[in-house]
Amino acid sequence: MIETSSGRHRPWMAGPGRPWMTYGLIVSCCLIFVLGPASGLNPGYGSGGRLMEAQSTYFERWGVVPTALWSGDPDQPLAPLTALFVHGNWLHLLGNMLFLYVFGAMTEERMGRLQFAVFYLATGYLALLGYAAAHADSAQSLVGASGAISGVLGAFLWLFPRARVTSLFPFLLFLPLRFPAWAVLIFWVALQWLAARQADDRPGVAYLAHLVGFTLGFLYAWARFGRTARVGGAARPSEGESQP
Question: Which sequence ranges are marked TM in the entry (predicted)?
């Protein structure tokens, strides 16, 4: 729910500003995950060792494998696009979809549905491509929408610098606390940067893809919208009531 400067609340579920593209991306990712082997819900992939083998094959087929991406295979240029809709496990999926739901709706409303869709796919593609270029010798599969969603976070930071979000921090006993979005996102970027410096080529989180996506998203919003589309000024700033 968004609180305007007049103090009235406008629910996202009402009116022409409904973020259909954000909802569509969330539904698509969820359906693909449930039907795939990673969810463990599709009996067609079997169980035990057979299921693990199916998961490995699935991630290699639809994810980004840097050594394969630069091999010259004509099918590989599509890999960073298909990888955006594949997730490794339930936690990976739910975490990404939560952040997309929290920050995607407002960003989509400001950009427009078509522009938001192109921005999301392009940013995610380039984020995965950047990671693959930096780890060209890696044979690990890279999947997930994190790079694209990081781009949404970057754009959100520029477009809504004074928005406020309710956040849960584990080291504060998961107490729901309200912070300016810029503080939460800068803190998030700092964590990604620190983690990326310590990361190696073993399986794990692609923090570099997060940083690339966030940077591209922020720069795109800055170049495309300038200061004219930013929410701020003397009026009471808009407030997001979602919980990342």
Answer: 78-102, 114-133, 139-160, 172-193, 205-223
Residues 187-234: tens digit of each pLDDT: 777 777 776 666 555 545 678 899 999 999 999 999 998 866 555 433
The residue assigned the tokens 């599969």 is: 141
Is 28 catalytic? The answer is no
CA angle 17, 18, 23 (to 5 degrees): 145
Amino acid at 2: I
Question: CA 196, CA 211: separation in Å to the nearest integer?
Answer: 9
Of 221, 82, 94, 216, nearest to 141 (Cα)? Answer: 82
Check residues 86 and 200 and name the one with the higher pLDDT.
86
State yes or no: pLDDT of 125 exceeds 80: yes
CB-CB contact of 123 with 216 (8 Å) = yes
C-alpha to C-alpha distance for 32 and 228, rounded to whole angstroms: 38
With b meaning 16 or more CB within 10 Å and e meaning fewer, what string describes 192-219?
Answer: beeebeeeeeeeeebbbbbbbbbbbbbe
CB atoms within 10 A of CB 89: 13
Provide mean pLDDT across the span 161-173.
Answer: 59
The helix/strand/coil state of 199 is coil
Asked if 138 is an active-site residue, the reply is: no
| Catalytic residue, candidates 92, 135, 141, 146 | 146
Q: For residue 178, how many C-alpha atoms fall within 13 Å in the half-sphere facing its CB?
A: 7
Asked if residue 201 lies in contact with residue 134, where contact means CB atoms within 8 angstroms, the answer is no
Catalytic residue among 87, 92, 135, 210: 210
Token digits for 148? 């694209």
